[in-house]
Amino acid sequence: MSEPLIVQGRALTPDHLAQVRSLITAHPQASRRQLSQILCSQWDWKNDAGLFKDMAARTLMLKLHQRGLIALPARRHPPATHRRGQPRPACLPLEFALPDPRCGDLNSVLPISVQCLAAHEPDQRLFTALLQEHHYLGLRTTVGENLKYLVRAADGQPLACLLFGAAAWKAAARDAWIGWSPAQRTGRLQWLTNNTRFLILPGVRIAHLASHVLGRVARRIAADWQAKYGHPVVALETFVQRDRFTGACYRAANWTHVGATTGRSRQDRNHQLRVGVKDVYLLPLCRHWRAQLLAQP
User: Fold this and answer.
1) Residue 194 has what pLDDT?
2) Is the peptide bond before 89 cis (omega within 30 degrees of 0)?
């Protein structure tokens, strides 16, 4: 290779690839997870909070394996994910049973609590169970940088779940609205996060609750992200499936509709696979958000 290969935001030279191959050869009994941890240590690959980027290293090695540039050992266990097409749980475990339906105006549930779930927190199981059971996309294993929010009414009843994760690598409408170049996008994509799941629980019929929740989360997510990962996020994005939802709650929470997707999947290598068109919404979190996204890293 005459030019470095860009994978997972890193420029890889032939020497880097040779180092990864040597690492795999030197640890024949190591699992894929163990190899990624060793690679993180060798490269001192950390996020801004000083934590090793184990999942980024694992994804990098998997992409190199898929391109035939390295040979990873076989998986020892199938991924513990909830995949589309697989049966969902018949019902929530008894301990997570939903309360009776709740209707009324917003004041009937105020003040709500918005809990940013830490790793290994007991409510992580509740969060996962609710999304797996009641969100139309379910919930697969979350990888990379992400934040999970569980929203409860004043009396403690769960009302909503929100998941924020990695921004889409490319989105023509979003990229045009921001105005960044491919190089700027590569360097600043982690300063944008995607609201990949938003669930108001079944039976909850509270007027203006969804937009109120979005507003509460928007006011705190930048600080939560900085505290967890050591770098900021300056804008939020989401993709609303047009044939299912209107996006009204996002517009009511001051998100901006910037366009729509083309109805093609990122897995569509032959330009034949069609998926539902999604409306693209963005929400800046600070005054100079665009200048920060356009700045060179």
Assistant:
1) 97
2) no
**Average confidence (pLDDT) over 2-7:** 71
Residue 134 CA to residue 201 CA, distance in Å, equals: 7
CB neighbour list of residue 273: distance below 8 Å, 6 or more residues apart: 264, 265, 267
293 contacts 192 by C-beta, under 8 angstroms = yes
In this structure, what is the dihedral angle of CA atoms 203, 204, 206, 209, given to the nearest 10 degrees?
Answer: -150
Reported as a single tens digit per residue, the pLDDT across 83-135 is: 444 445 445 665 566 667 889 999 999 999 999 999 888 899 999 999 998 99
Q: Residue 258 in contact with residue 280, Cβ under 8 Å?
A: yes
Q: 107: Cβ–Cβ under 8 A, 6 or more apart, which residues?
A: none
| C-alpha 166 chain-centroid distance | 4
Query: Looking at beta carbons, which pairs linking 154-159 to residues 24 or more positions away fall under 8 Å?
Result: 154/109, 154/110, 154/111, 154/112, 154/113, 157/99, 157/102, 157/109, 158/126, 158/130, 158/201, 159/102, 159/109, 159/112, 159/200, 159/201, 159/204, 159/206, 159/209, 159/213
266 residue type, one letter: R
Q: Among the ranges 76-85, 99-108, 137-146, 166-175, which has the highest mean pLDDT value?
A: 166-175
Q: List the one residue out of 35, 13, 8 whose CA is nearest residue 24.
A: 35
Check residue 241 and report its DSSP letter: E
Angle at 115 between CA 211 and CA 198, to 5 degrees: 40
Sign (positive or negative) of CA dihedral 34, 37, 42, 43: positive
Contacts of 272 (CB under 8 A, 6+ apart): none
Q: Is the pTM of this model over 0.85?
A: no
